[in-house]
Write a structure and sequence with these properties.
Elements lengths: L2 E4 L5 E3 L1 H14 L2 E2 L5 E2 L2 H5 L13 E3 L10 H12 L4 E4 L6 H13 L3 E4 L12 E3 L3 H13 L5
Parallel strand pairs: 6-7, 7-8
Antiparallel strand pairs: 1-2, 1-5, 3-4
Length: 155
């Protein structure tokens, strides 16, 4: 479930608690709502845009994700290491592993002897650690995997 975190008080809440406010605003102001959820807004609306504030501290809300340049919370990193400790393999899908926050888990798994499998178009930073690698666009690779796993079709 998508969550939002307040930059001020670090309160976390479900996105749906703010969704009605955004939906009403975008429905009234948007000239177009794109398939990815982005909206196209007239210039006068953009100039007067204000962010929906946290209902507790009035701080700025942001998706509860780690943006580029931010640190991954220590508890989340520890949870990932624990999952790798219990895993039979680590599968990397569609990532160059350029950012340390993902790459460190590949190195950790390889050092522990847990096989790393990578599906990505082009080289990745984790290639030297991979036990198996598929160099294809992710959609194509996963589509082929599903077709093979489904077996012969019966027409």
């Amino acid at each position: 479930m998508p969550r939002w975190r307040t930059c001020g008080c670090s309160r976390s809440s479900a996105r749906r608690s703010y969704q009605s406010t955004w939906r009403a605003w975008t429905a009234a102001e948007a000239t177009r709502i794109n398939p990815d959820g982005d909206v196209e807004l007239p210039d006068d609306v953009v100039r007067t845009f204000t962010v929906v504030p946290c209902t507790v501290c009035g701080g700025v809300l942001k998706p509860d994700v780690v943006f580029f340049g931010e640190n991954v919370p220590k508890s989340r990193v520890e949870r990932c290491y624990s999952l790798i400790d219990d895993a039979n393999a680590v599968l990397v899908l569609g990532s160059s592993l350029t950012v340390m926050s993902g790459f460190r888990f590949v190195r950790y798994a390889a050092k522990a002897g847990t096989p790393v499998l990578i599906i990505n178009q082009g080289l990745t930073r984790g290639d030297p650690y991979a036990a198996f690698r598929v160099d294809l666009p992710l959609g194509q690779a996963l589509g082929e995997l599903v077709r093979k796993a489904s077996g012969p079709s019966h027409a």
